Structure to design on (145 residues):
């Protein structure tokens, strides 16, 4: 007489339930991580244009996309034909992009902006009014809403 070995249906169901619970916890955490990473990446990419912006102001040049070396990110809706920089007569200005493209769907419509005051101080600002699923935990450090 041979003894049957293997798992019972009850044991298999317990394993499936445990895997389901772990997935229910892990998937939202992973998506939050992806969103934070993409937001930080886009802020970093936009930040890279502050130095050319300053250089163009100092030399009296224009700040069109070609002048500051702008290349649209795949995380934004940016296109080469629409300038991301604005310079006001008083020396203040801004750099701004809108999230879209290959970014996580929860980031679509999020506006990332660096505001420059007339003294040359930059501040990171995030406008989440168009990103309906935005959570405060996604806010990059050094930025404000």
């Amino acid at each position: 007489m041979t003894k049957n070995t293997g798992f019972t249906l009850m044991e298999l169901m317990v394993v499936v339930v445990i895997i389901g619970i772990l997935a229910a916890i892990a998937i939202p955490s992973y998506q939050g991580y992806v969103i934070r990473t993409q937001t930080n990446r886009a802020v970093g990419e936009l930040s890279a244009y502050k130095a050319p912006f300053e250089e163009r102001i100092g030399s009296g040049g224009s700040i069109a996309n070609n002048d500051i070396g702008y290349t649209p990110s795949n995380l934004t809706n940016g296109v080469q034909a629409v300038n991301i920089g604005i310079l006001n007569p008083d020396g203040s200005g801004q750099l701004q992009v809108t999230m879209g493209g290959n970014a996580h769907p929860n980031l679509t419509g999020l506006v990332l902006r660096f505001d420059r005051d007339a003294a040359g101080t930059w501040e990171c600002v995030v406008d989440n009014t168009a990103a309906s699923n935005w959570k405060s935990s996604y806010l990059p450090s050094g930025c404000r809403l």
Observations:
- The helical segments are 9-47, 50-58, 65-68.
- The radius of gyration is 23 Å.
- Strands lie at 85-87, 93-98, 111-116, 122-127, 143-144.
